[in-house]
Design goal:
Radius of gyration: 22 Å
Oligomer: single chain
Helix content: 25-40%
Number of helices: 2
Shape: elongated
Number of domains: 1
Strand content: 25-35%
Order of helices and strands: HEEEEEEEEH
Distance between the termini: 81 Å
Largest sheet: 5 strands, antiparallel
Structural class: alpha+beta
Amino acid sequence: MTPDITKLKSKVKEYKLVLENTNNYRLAWKNNLKLLISNTLNSIISQTELKAKVVERNNIENLEALVLDLGRSSSGISENMEHIDLKHTMIKNNGALIYQQLFNGKIMVMILSPHIEGYGEQKEPESLEILRPDEISEASILEHVENLLDTITFWEDYDDEDPKKQVPFQPIGFQHSGNIN
């Protein structure tokens, strides 16, 4: 008596469908999605005068990314260098919104919070969601940018007296540097 392979055939059929979807998602990125995301982000920059630029990362085919990069700036914090009359300005990375292709052609949307180099640890990117290309629209991109702005505004407006805005305190200064000279 031969075993029933109906269940196995169903799994093979599902596997083939997933592989086909991966190819279709990758084609969608190349054919229209990358342009939709880039154009929408550039339109948002233009209409809102947000200081940002859209950066394409395409050094690995089918793992490409588009980044709404808010750039870098002076943090306004500088370290006085011992024994010389110089100050070392700490640079602030202002945050970013990332659309990253995954290995299966779906798109992971992430927010990179602002951080000051040399002041605490940079947070890992926050994953907002993973989407199929047909789930991404101008409206969803706008919502992602709004989430980014909520995140960076929250970071910039840190206040330990507001319970909604409490984040771990990151001390800075020679008492906390761990260096003993």
